[in-house]
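Sequence, please.
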């Protein structure tokens, strides 16, 4: 679910439902993860574009990779690269709180826009 979440953000899709893990996972930074729990917590996103998408998922050597394919149209895409950024809001001995953002960067890596995604709270071990 974390790998899919990151791919969905990079594809510019709308997140409808997402929860962070209880603890920061070892394979993703705080604020860049998503979890699912059968029967109670789901990860949902919506394709609001005028065309379908294709999701390709592979696992090799214990590493999951997800790619999202679709048509690129001028009306639906900015000329920016999309990613997730996060910053720490609170860091105590028992809790970590971070805010995450969808970052829009130009080809030189400069952030030109950011949209707030979530404020996540994690327990510390």
């Amino acid at each position: 679910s974390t790998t899919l979440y990151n791919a969905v953000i990079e594809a510019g899709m709308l997140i409808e439902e997402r929860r962070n893990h209880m603890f920061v996972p070892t394979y993703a930074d705080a604020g860049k993860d998503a979890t699912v729990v059968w029967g109670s917590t789901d990860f949902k996103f919506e394709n609001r574009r005028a065309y379908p998408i294709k999701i390709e998922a592979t696992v090799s050597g214990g590493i999951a990779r997800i790619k999202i394919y679709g048509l690129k149209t001028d009306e639906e895409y900015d000329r920016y690269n999309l990613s997730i950024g996060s910053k720490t809001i609170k860091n105590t001995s028992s809790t970590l709180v971070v805010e995450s953002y969808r970052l829009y960067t130009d080809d030189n890596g400069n952030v030109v826009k950011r949209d707030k995604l979530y404020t996540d709270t994690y327990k510390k071990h």
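The chain has a mean pLDDT of 92.
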